[in-house]
Amino acid sequence: MATVKGSDHQQLIKRVTWVVALGVLLNPLNSSMISVALLNIGADFGISLATVTWLISSFYLAATVGQPLMGKLADLFGPRRVFSIGMALVIVSSILSVWAPSFGWLLVLRIVQAFGTTGAFPAGLSILRSVSRTADDTEGKSSASSLGLISIAANVMAAFGPTLGGLLVAYSGWQSIFWINIPIALLVLLLVFKWVPADSKNPPSDERKSVLHMIDLPGIVLFSGMFTSLMLFLISLGKGTQWWLLIIVPIAAALLILRELRTDKPFLDVKMLASNIRLTSVFAQYAGLNMVFYSLFFGLPLWLGQVRGYDPQMVGLLMLPFAGIGVLTTPLAVRMIGRSGYRQPIIVGSIVLAIGTLLLLVLGPHTPITIILFVFAVIGISNGMNNMGLSTALYSITKPEDTGIASGLFQTFRSVGSIFSTSLLGLIFGGSVTTSGLHIIAVVTAVISAGLLAVGCSRRLT
């Protein structure tokens, strides 16, 4: 690929950045829009809430596996090719989801959609890196600007996904949250073919033959089996508890650890987790934070729709302070870090989160909307603080040569927290959505928030 200089290379980087940003936003968009569509989907297919929440947990489990998998495939087969295949998977799965004949089909298509959307981030960053080097701008200001735009796009979509989803479901039914992917993914594909340079020549055939070794398929299977068994066990509690599943979990965990210690291409880098306690603590905090966030992110719309009787459009609007204020508090967290280090926003965010989750105990069937908005806003304030603080802690604690692996594990633990949140919702709201159930979730998330605060205050662990 020839080196491009001057205004031409800046234009190339800008175009590729917009293409990657459009592709990346599909993942947070699809993970957040569905929060206001769960009740409608459950009613259409005649299934319980515990069952319909599998649309969430399966998405995050697939994303956990998909991101490192698609990243390795991008290295082996070319990022442009993998990025394009991801967009094609989104288009096909979205079209078929609209006409899914059963919930089982919808669940499978949702998993395919997760793999398609999650490939955009690792493949997209590889494309950007390649273009920057071609443009004689290796990891320079243009690259930093590009990453900033992609991050903003992802955060904004995650924040406003429920609001957009509420509008779509209210006027066009739950199928519309799948329809909206099609024009976006088609546009991205068109721009990929028009603007993104072709991949370099294919890797040697012996590298392709080693693809199964590179992606650590046994590790992926054991990891997926462990978490699927654990989720099924948690959901079964109190209603025909499936104790045999609890036997599978430690066996799968032990086999996973043994496997990952022996392979040179681990899916889950156990050696890194064992050698750096402070880094492992950051991962654990991030998993706990996301368990709290997603328990409320998906649980509150269910309560607003089932108990308060609001339509999806109103639910989406009420969720705006919860998800959106975090975008506004992120700059404040950045200033805190610059002045006092990363621990301050973690501690402040955890305190605010604990207060906000406890305030959920005042909510009931007749609570004024102003009080609901206030409580949601308090919780929302903590989102930007905690996320920025832990992200900075990750890069401060990690050795430079381990940054790539640590970043991947960071996202893995985010998905782990999300998966546990859906298990909690299935356990508490499995029979029916009630205010007492919301209060149980409030207590559980408040206890987790207090734990996050305790760990954040410990200089030995953070």
Automatic annotation (TrEMBL):
GO CC, one annotated term: plasma membrane
Major facilitator superfamily (MFS) profile domain location: 16-462
Residues annotated as transmembrane: 41-62, 82-101, 107-128, 149-171, 177-196, 217-237, 243-261, 282-303, 315-334, 346-363, 369-397, 409-430, 436-457
Record has Metal-binding as a keyword: no
Superkingdom of the source species: Bacteria
One Gene Ontology molecular-function label: transmembrane transporter activity
Subcellular location: Cell membrane
Keywords: Membrane, Transmembrane, Transmembrane helix, Transport
Gene3D superfamilies given in the database record: MFS general substrate transporter like domains (1.20.1250.20), Multidrug resistance protein D (1.20.1720.10)
Membrane topology of the entry: Multi-pass membrane protein
Name recorded for this polypeptide: Major facilitator superfamily (MFS) profile domain-containing protein
Organismal lineage: Bacteria, Bacillati, Bacillota, Bacilli, Bacillales
